[in-house]
Design goal:
Elements (H helix, E strand, L loop, with lengths): L22 H6 L10 H12 L3 H8 L3 H9 L7 H11 L3 H4 L2 H8 L1 H12 L3 H7 L7 H7 L10
């Protein structure tokens, strides 16, 4: 009670705590971003830096929580381009910085790279397939035949 017999207002402050569950995790993610080498490490580091939970990130991406968990564990076959574009925007980093070399290859579109390599050599699809030791109907031929998908903000 105050001096005049009235009650003083009570203010309740709330704030979000980071979700680091173990001291070893806190130490691991207190390192520099440049020292992280895998996509899952980079995704976790960025999420921890913003104090977000996996569930919140998945909701913002519009994907199931289980899919985002797989992305952070590194147990997915490839990282969906649309999800990576949204993550890069959310985390404020270029998408290329989130991905490792193999994931960047898939993100950029293997068909484009295969087609450019074939064209640099001046070969037809059939001649290129023979050069790399595959038959005429193979994944390389199907990738080479696809047109690249334009992503938002990319030319």
């Amino acid at each position: 009670m105050g001096r005049d017999g009235r009650l003083a207002p009570l203010y309740v402050l709330s704030f979000r705590l980071g979700k680091v569950r173990k001291a070893s995790e806190a130490q691991r993610y207190s390192c520099k971003y440049e020292d992280l080498h895998t996509v899952p490490e980079r995704l976790r580091w960025c999420r921890y830096r913003l104090g977000l939970m996996q569930k919140e990130v998945a909701q913002q991406l519009g994907i199931p929580l289980s899919q985002y968990e797989e992305m952070e564990r590194g147990s997915c076959q490839e990282y969906p381009a649309q999800a990576m574009d949204k993550l890069a925007e959310l985390y404020g980093v270029p998408v290329e910085d989130l991905l490792d070399e193999y994931s960047r290859f898939l993100y950029d579109g293997p068909g484009d790279r295969i087609r450019r390599a074939r064209e640099r050599l001046g070969l037809s699809r059939k001649a290129f397939a023979k050069l790399v030791g595959t038959g005429g109907k193979c994944a390389i031929g199907r990738w080479d035949g696809k047109r690249s998908v334009k992503r938002a903000g990319r030319s």
